[in-house]
Amino acid sequence: MRRVNPIPVVAIGLIGLVALMAPWLGLADPVRIDVSNRLSAPSWQHWLGQDEVGRDILSRLLWGARSSLTVAILSASIGCAIGTSLGVLGGFLGGVVDLLTIRAADVILCFPPLLLALLVVTLLGPGAATLVPVLGLVFIPGFVRVAYAGVLSVRHQEYVEAQRALGVGPLRIMLRTVLPNIGGPVLVQFSLAMAAAVVLESGLSFLGLGVVPPAPSWGLMIGAARQTMAQTVLPLLWPCLALTMTVLTMNALCDAVRAAVDPHGTPPRERRWKLPALLPGLPFGAASSLSVNGLSVAIETRTDERKTGEVRPVRSVSWQVAPGETLAIVGESGSGKSLTGLAVLGLLPPVARASEGAVHFEGRELLRLDEPALRRLRGGDIAMVFQDPMASLNPVHRIGRQIAEAIRVHRRVSRAAAWREAVALLARVGIPDAAHRARSFPHELSGGMRQRAMVAMAIANRPKLLIADEPTTALDVTIQAQVLEMLAELKAENGMGLVFITHSLPVVAEIADRVVVMYAGEIVEQGPVAELFARPLHPYTAALLSSAPPEDGSLPHAIPGTVPLPQNLPAGCAFAPRCAMSRPQCEAAAPLLEHAGPQHATRCIRWRAMAADPVVEAASA
Ligand code: SF4
User: Fold this and answer.
1) pTM
2) Domains of the chain, earliest start first
3) CA triplet 9, 11, 17: central angle to 5 degrees?
4) Residues near ligand 1 with C-beta < 6 Å?
């Protein structure tokens, strides 16, 4: 958080302090009448003069400030607490909760605030005790709307998904991740509510429905001074000035607070740094393996009002990853590789579900686990790193705190111990001056450091398996190489299995032991990385290899066409429309995944021709 502009803080502090100290400032009695000196001009005894019945205006002004500020703070706080809670619950949980909270807010919003307050105060009678709950009720819908809109904008942000991936529960996500991220708009709404409460209190008092006379109030003062404004305007001027200045100061204060809590600022210049040697590691658990068998993901579609259909963007995918092994899943956008990774951890978006297959990890079938069991697993034994660390890290919390939180979700350690461990993890992933960097916000770090921080968070609970979804795509080549090197070091050091999802074959060559190539939701080829690179047995793999940027700087060969959408898959081979080796029989029936070697499989009916001479065959096609 940056420094708050001190000017509105000091100004509002002075107003509050003076109002609070009114009984001890030696002021005249605010209700003592002195008719013989009515409407007197300012004097040494009465600095701002006397009102229409001779009461001291300065005293009534300061005592009136106590009434106005008390009503404003209490009513805005009530509206903020109830409205924000309802908005967050409705936005985050959705469904019936969403319907109830938002519709209830809409019903209240149908009534103009002043009319609603007038109606209730007329029914219940005037007085500050009535004003506070009434104004609180009037402010609730505004807070509901602001909080609801804020939650909708952040609930599918990657840093919220990343929290789910770490196994954090919904209540904790709402309180620790969502709420701080909507703090800015809620604070602005709070300032508006406070200012509106001061104005509404004065307006209702002016109408005789607010503070009960003879108790001082700015609204009562304005109402009384209006009667005598033909004789002198000073009794009218002072409460109007006090009201205006207070409202403006409140708005300025909350703008200043919002500017301070807004985490998005200009990031520091990218710094180049050397990958240091890893620090002594924390003990990792015994390594295990993951087995995915026949996994399919289905998305329900609605073709018209009555008919629903289903598309399957991932179909019958099977692979295994052994302890200490790196399995790369490679393919273009739309190939289904990321959905496969999300399905393994039960993190599919609400519209998608794992419709077939099984995922086994340490004797447990993950697709059958309930959400609490999956939460214990995520961020614990299996961790995930997402593509964009800026979007995956919570922008309003310090890096060290986020890592410490990830530790405390899964282990009973004190805050201090978790913080120390977070600093050690940051050092371990190669962040220089880790103790200092742990106190940084995400926007204060370079892209490479943020990705390292994400990896530190993912390995915080010593996972046996790490799923990394395009973790280097957003990084430049140098930083990308450093992150890859770091992942390889961590894996070698701890026997952690690694599933590396990427669209880049050069990255695969650098890091993977085995590779799975996906196209249009299916595995089209899989095998050991050296064998697959030397002898691709599917035209799509060969096309991906030739589309990688050549080392001599010449232009790569782009693959013509695009990946078909799941709802528009061809009847035969899905790659046929883009395949240079396609034959009529390729379009007759979908090819099966065939073994082309002990560990090598391909989904192409012409793989034998490719195996005989891939270059000649591809050229002659
Ligand atoms: S089956 Fe036919 S169309 Fe499909 S990849 Fe093989 S050669 Fe190309």
Assistant:
1) 0.63
2) 56-261 (1.10.3720.10), 539-621 (no CATH)
3) 95
4) 538-539, 573, 575-576, 579, 581-582, 586, 591, 604-606
